[in-house]
Amino acid sequence: MSTFKAYGVLNATSSLAPLQITRREPQPHDVAIKIAYCGVCHSDIHQARNEWGNSVYPMVPGHEIVGTVTSVGAKVRRFKVGDKVGVGCLVDSCRQCPDCKEGLEQFCSRPIFTYNCLELDNKTPVQGGYSSGIVVHEDFVLRIPDYLPLDKTAPLLCAGITTYSPLRHWNAGPGKKVAIIGLGGLGHMAVKIARAMKAEVTVLSRTLDKKDDAIKLGAHHVYATNDPKTFEHLAKNFDLIINTVSVKLDWGAYLGLLQRDGTMVLLGVPTDAPQLHAFSLIMGRRSLAGSLIGGIKETQEMLDFCGKHNITADIEIIPMVKINEAYERVIKADVKYRFVIDMASL
Ligand code: NAP
Ligand code: ZN
Ligand code: ZN
To answer: What is this structure's pTM?
Structure first.
């Protein structure tokens, strides 16, 4: 076992504080990575604070990991020392089920998430990216296009793939009208990616405070959802709505913005679900769907797509000691548009 510096929580109410963690010695198929940057996802906060009810402590959050390879196991062929690499929300899976065989490891019944999870031995906890280094099986390590800057690329490993995957799956592209609810970490990546896919992009934010930003990020239109006229004006308008908000919203009202056969995809996870009348779906043959990050193959496809279109996140870099303050600011939606921790500060 090797020891690494990290920041984590000891229980649902503790602040993040320095911790020492151990990780396995690199095995023949493992890649050891020095972490340069790690993004701060709202899911880190949900899990650090046990808002999904499944948290195990101590917990080192962080699943938007980028860095450089420091050593590789004897059988690793795809990576070498010095390569720029990333690790997202998954570090392993059963590899045998139909989902894994199709490259959809996120839907495996035994996925190994990057933290708040146990290894396949069902004993050893895995710890995330608020840490100086990580050891990951090569099959779950992503290659970062050379010309993308590491710090701004970190958020692609979760916010990027989580929005790319449903945009791809529900065919965002030329002639398609796509709305993004919530201009936060996921939302701002969704805008950039949907625009690069050549869809017509609308941001639905609570107010018009972020209107100029949304347009700069690539949105064609911006509407305030605190204005009831928005829901009249945009009725039956969109092919696809990507909902990134993690609090209870009136899903029925948003479904009314879909054209016939349109789909609203849930990405955010509200702790209590709103009531939905069946007519919201029946009238217009509409669908309510969900989507979970993306598989490894698709994550690499997303990174290559972002490399080709020069897409990275808009970030605010913080030293590790500012992490507790950053969590409070994410909750207030006071971040443009993703915090990224500089691990050199650890
Ligand atoms: P974030 O940066 O906090 O963004 C959320 C956005 O939601 C905010 O910027 C804000 O946009 C809007 N919002 C916040 N509070 C609201 C409120 N009270 N009412 C209405 N809108 C509100 O969070 P994130 O990192 O993008 O993550 C968003 C959600 O997705 C989280 O629940 C996270 O756990 C989840 N997630 C899911 C997956 C998946 O695979 N499904 C992956 C990653 C994250 P405006 O200010 O523009 O209104
Ligand atoms: Zn995330
Ligand atoms: Zn599986």
So the answer is: 0.98
